[in-house]
Amino acid sequence: MLPAIERLLKQRTAPDRHHVSILVLSPTRELAQHIAKESVSIVAGRRSIEVQCVVGGTNMQTEAARFDKNRIDILVATPDRLIDHIRDSNLGPRFKFLQCLVLDEADRLLDQGFMPAIQTILGSLPDRNTRPRQTLLFSATLPEKVKMLSSAALLPTYRYISTISETEQST
C-alpha cells in the first residue's frame, strides 16, 4: 500500500476529486477498515487526499452520498460491497484514471470465494492496454488459486518477490 500512496503523493497535481486513484480490495470488513485507518494516518497533513472505505453491513446510501460530497482518491473495499456500488451507485466510471489496484491477502480473498467478484471488478476497470495501472498482489501463501489470480490481475511481465530466504522454510 505504501508504494501506491508514495506514488500518489509525488504527483505534481492533485488527482481529480471525482476519480479513484488507488483501489484496495480486502477480504474482510475489519481488515479493510484497518487499511483505511492506516492510510488516513499516512496521508494526514498532506495535500488533499481522501481515503474512503466501503464494507458490507453499512448504509450504502450514506457511502454513495460520501462519494459525491468528498474526494475519493483511495478507496478500500470488500469485493461484494464494491460490486454493489459499481452496480447501484454508478461507481464504475470513477475508475477511469485508476493508477493502482491492490489485492491484499489474495489467498484469503480466494479462500473466501471472492474469485467471481474479483473477476467482475477487474472487468469494470479500464483496459490496462488503454489506461496502464500498477497492480500489487499480496499473499502470505502462494497456492495455485493465487497463481491463477496473478495471471488474471497482473501483467504477463509481473515479478514475484519473496520475503523469505531460499534457505528458510515458509510457514
UniProtKB/TrEMBL annotation:
Question: What one GO molecular function would you report for this record?
Answer: hydrolase activity
In short, the EC number is 3.6.4.13
Task: Report which reactions are catalysed by this protein.
Answer: ATP + H2O = ADP + phosphate + H(+)
Span of the secretion signal? none
Instruction: Give the enzyme class.
Output: hydrolase
* Transmembrane portions of the chain: none
- Residues forming the Helicase ATP-binding domain are 1-160
Q: Which domain of life is it from?
A: Eukaryota
- Asked if ATP-binding is a keyword of the record, the answer is yes
Q: Provide this UniProt record's keywords sorted from A to Z.
A: ATP-binding, Helicase, Hydrolase, Nucleotide-binding, RNA-binding
Q: GO cellular-component terms in the record?
A: cytosol
Which PANTHER family would you find in this protein's record? ATP-DEPENDENT RNA HELICASE DBPA, ATP-DEPENDENT RNA HELICASE RHLE-RELATED
Q: Would you tell me the protein name for this molecule?
A: RNA helicase
Organism of provenance = Hydnum rufescens UP504
